[in-house]
Structures are given as C-alpha cells and as structure tokens.
Amino acid sequence: MIRFVTGNEGKVREAREYLNDDVRQIDYDYTEVQSDDLAEIALHGAREAFEETGGEEPIVVDDAGLFIDAVGGFPGPYSAYVEDTLGVERVWQLAEREENRRAHFRCVVAYYDGENAETFSGAVPGTLVAPRGDGGFGYDPIFEHEGKTLAEMSTEEKNAISHRGRALAKFADWLAEQ
Ligand code: ITT
Ligand code: NA
What is the ipTM, given to two decimal places? Predict the structure, then answer.
C-alpha cells in the first residue's frame, strides 16, 4: 500500500490508473519548501510525511506546475497559489495578451519508504487557450495539446500524454522492478 499525500483528488484519480488499488490518499499538509525545483519540494514533502505518518508505509508526493514561456515560466512552482488567488480564467487573460502562448506542465512524483528516495518527472508541451471542457482539474481547461484541452480528455487520454502520466509511468516501471 502506498500513501499518496495530497489534497488534490484529481492527482489520485490519475495515479490509480498506474498503481491500481495500491494507493490510498492521505491529506497530510506537508511543508512546501520555497524552491524553484519541483523535485526538491516533492522529496522534502515525502520525507516529512513519512516521518509524520509513523514511517510504516511508503509515501508518494506529487508536485506539479504550469510554466508559461512568455512570462518566464510563471506561475511554475507557485501554480497552486496563483490558481487560488488569481484563478485560471485570469491566468488565461494574462496569456491572451501575449503573441507566444506556449506553455508546459511539469510534474515530479517523489517516493520515499525510509530507505529509497526516488523522483520521477514528466512534462507536456501545449498552448494556452480560452477555457474549454469540464474534465480534469486545475489549469486543464486552458491548456491545449494537439487540438484538445486536457479538460476535454478522459483520464486515460490525459494520462497517455500528460506530465503526470509520464512521471507515473516511470514510477510504475521502477516499482515493478523492486
Ligand atoms: P497537493 O499539493 O495537495 O498535492 P495541489 O493542487 O496544491 O495539491 P500542487 O502543489 O502540485 O498541487 O500545485 C499544482 C498547481 O497546478 C495546482 O494549482 C493544480 O491545480 C495545478 N495542476 C497540477 N497538475 C495539474 C494538471 O494535471 N492539470 C491542470 N492543473 C494542474
Ligand atoms: Na500543494
């Protein structure tokens, strides 16, 4: 059993496609260290959550962000804060004024079991567009990849191309070898 530490059910839904029933969501609020390195944030969180939950079961933490080219990678590691404060619609309005609307999502899955500390990362390129679709979560409605926003995709379709799907696929491969 792996404990997936997150307040975000969308992440867990996507992870279940790779880890099946072996994943249980726990909503422990680990410290998100100030860093522009998603792997550092995630691994720090995984170690802290492992200690805080008694150190008995392996922990997974997922740290992700939206990086917009025209504004120097903003909001990047601050994506959750920006979603809560500005909101997705206003992030789109920011991008709308730019000629270059390219962006990418990045995700790092960090695993810690008291012995092994591993990180797995993934990225997906796309273009920011006016919101479309009601699937997914977060910035999915404004992020288009090959003609569809991520919010217009099923979980399976999104996983096949997404930052998280790529990171989870690497993680699942590694796990199978253990
Ligand atoms: P936890 O930290 O509790 O796991 P969170 O939603 O705060 O949940 P992050 O710190 O990783 O997650 O913040 C990432 C931000 O980027 C947040 O606003 C998410 O909604 C958004 N995000 C992450 N993955 C995404 C995805 O696959 N599609 C769209 N938005 C995503
Ligand atoms: Na968070």
Answer: 0.97
Residue 173 designated active-site: no
Give, as residue ranges, everything with CB less than 5 Å from ion ligand 2. Answer: 80
Is the CB of residue 60 less than 8 Å from the CB of residue 50? no
HSE value, Cβ hemisphere, 13 Å, CA-based, for 115? 3
Domain boundaries along the sequence of the chain: 2-177
Q: Are strands 59-68 and 2-5 parallel, antiparallel or unpaired?
A: parallel
pLDDT band per the 50, 70, 90 thresholds, residue 22? confident
Question: pLDDT value at position 35?
Answer: 85
How many residues in the chain? 178
pLDDT band of residue 29 (cuts 50, 70, 90) is: confident
Q: Out of 66, 74, 142, give the residue to mutate to test ligand 1, the one with the largest number of ligand atoms within 8 Å of its CB.
A: 66
Show binding-site residues for Mg(2+). 32, 63
Of the candidates 27, 28, 33, which has an alpha carbon nearest to the alpha carbon of residue 52? 28
Residue with CA nearest ligand 1 atom 20 = 138
Report the nearest-CA residue for atom 22 of ligand 1. 138
- List pLDDT tens digits, range 52-105: 999 989 999 999 999 999 999 999 999 999 999 999 999 999 999 999 999 999
The domain defined by 2-177 folds into: Maf protein (3.90.950)
